[in-house]
Amino acid sequence: MKLFTSEQILKIEEETIKIEKIHSLNLMERAAEALKSQIIEDYKNCEKVFIFCGNGNNGGDGFALARLLHYEFFNVKIFCDLENLNFKENAKINFNDLKKIKDISINDFSEVEKFKIDKNDLVIDALFGIGLNRKIEGKSGELVNILNEINAIKIAVDIPSGLFSDEITPDDFIIFKADKTVSFQFWKKAFLYPETGKFCGEIKILDIGLSHKIIDSEISRNFIIDDILIISIYKKRNDFSNKGNFGNSVIIAGSHGKIGAAVLATKAALRSGSGLIFTISPECGNFILQTSAPEAMFINGGENHITNIELPKNAVCGIGPGLGTDEETEKCVLNFLKNQTKPLVIDADALNIISKNKSILKSIPENSILTPHPKEFERLFGITQNSFDRTDLALKMAKELKLIIVLKDHHTQIITPQQDVFYNITGNSGMAKGGSGDVLTGILTSLLSQKYSSKNAAIFGVWLHGKAGDFAAEKSSKESLLPVDLIKKIGKVFKYIQD
Ligand SMILES: NC(=O)C1=CN([C@@H]2O[C@H](COP(=O)(O)OP(=O)(O)OC[C@H]3O[C@@H](n4cnc5c(N)ncnc54)[C@H](OP(=O)(O)O)[C@@H]3O)[C@@H](O)[C@H]2O)[C@@H](O)CC1
Ligand SMILES: Nc1ncnc2c1ncn2[C@@H]1O[C@H](COP(=O)(O)OP(=O)(O)O)[C@@H](O)[C@H]1O
Ligand SMILES: [K+]
User: Fold this and answer.
1) Does 475 have pLDDT greater than 90?
2) 6-219 belongs to CATH 3.40.718.10
3) CA–CA gap between residue 192 and residue 178 (Å, rounded)
4) Pocket mutation for ligand 2, best pick of 408, 465, 467, 478 (most atoms within 8 Å of C-beta)
5) Which protein residues are within 6 Å of ligand 1, measured from CB?
6) What does the pLDDT look like over 35-64, one tens digit per residue?
7) 308: which DSSP letter?
8) How far apart are the first and last CA of the chain?
9) What's the ipTM?
10) Average pLDDT value for residue range 283-296
11) Mean pLDDT, the chain, as a whole number?
12) CATH superfamily of 229-498
């Protein structure tokens, strides 16, 4: 699914209106209808609905929603700035329609504290949408501050008021804190970054029927990884195949005390379809690896840490989990990286070793996949002001070095040398545990060995890893989820794709 800027969304909206020969009011009605259905689905037993409307089209959505919910027997109360009714055209039409319904009370923002709003009531923020272009101040600002203190179910229409859609919002802005954001047709960039996403709560995207023809022709380099993309990437296994057809994955991982990292990466690679798996680890991990993952072959790479890497034939490598940064390992890893010609997966301590020896970056084979978490990224490429800037820096480095950068986060980004950004929306905070990254390295190496392109392996692997996390969290809780649970769910994710 493409990700667009607010400017592009406006353009798509206008062109849809043109080619479908509809009035813009129709789109607002579609938006309100979709909102209404969602609210009925999620909160049908809710008694009171307090809707706060601005003067623009976001407010217009709020007025139309109020009318539709009223006809569904919800007790609706409207709030707007009665001292400054400076409506845009469609908001005005919907406001006037609403005035005709005498059972809906229309109140000024300043009256909000006179109402008893209960924790089971809905507070709906239709103050500002993607048209926000400055800080919320004055009466609206005071209102948002009050709403943020109220204990009720808080829903933002399209985007929480106060957030910019496409860029970081300054720290001193007043922003509505939503439990849920119900947004129209597209994800917005603000939902995907930690500094801004924390205001959005759960995200629900509603199809309001904007023209697919227009959407297809509008160019974007930013994408949300969705099921359609994954199905297009997934390669079905040929019935007439043998282990030689699915590649030789080589996991280079582990050191004394961190053999678990090698085990996790190895098991994840085994579960992700590779034909043969080899694990290069120090001898101290031999017994552990051979008993916990007997399908994999052990290659001795040293005593207590890796000092020597000898690859089997046709190896596709994933290097880094639990290696440690012993001087001998450092030397060995640098020497190894210098001599590689095929893309490989580079994670964890291998990234830390590169950070200390940045000149090696230029020798890494094109289209290799680097999987830094934010701290590792910072060590590799430097500190940025915020996570939006981090994406920009990653784009620059991916292009310069011709590498795929997987920026691991709640919404991991896959950044390509061609300057595309793919945002992942699977995964959950149960995965925020040591070992989850090792599982990802195993998955990515396995997919790369099966001849998925580096870009597709990264997109598919990151999505699969998160989806396995979501399946695992369904079963237990996020607190008790373990990285091994991700591995156990990889099979279910493949089934999900095949079905
Ligand atoms: N796209 C679609 O397909 C559909 C979109 N729809 C809906 O339209 C929404 C976008 O509506 P919108 O363009 O009217 O902008 P909105 O956010 O209501 O702001 C209104 C105006 O407020 C002003 N303003 C800005 N910041 C301010 C501030 N801090 N404090 C005070 N004023 C401020 C600024 O005007 P200015 O004062 O700069 O002239 C701005 O123009 C969208 O989010 C969705 O809900 C659906 O109806 C149907 C399909
Ligand atoms: N809150 C979260 N939501 C979704 N995914 C997460 C979250 N926290 C961590 N993850 C995922 O878990 C993995 C953690 O990797 P990393 O930090 O390298 O862990 P480790 O090296 O300790 O195994 C990443 O793929 C990351 O995207
Ligand atoms: K809003």
Assistant:
1) no
2) no
3) 15
4) 408
5) 9-10, 13, 27-28, 31, 54, 56-61, 88, 128-136, 157-158, 184, 208, 210
6) 999 999 999 999 899 999 999 999 999 999
7) -
8) 20
9) 0.96
10) 98
11) 97
12) Ribokinase (3.40.1190.20)
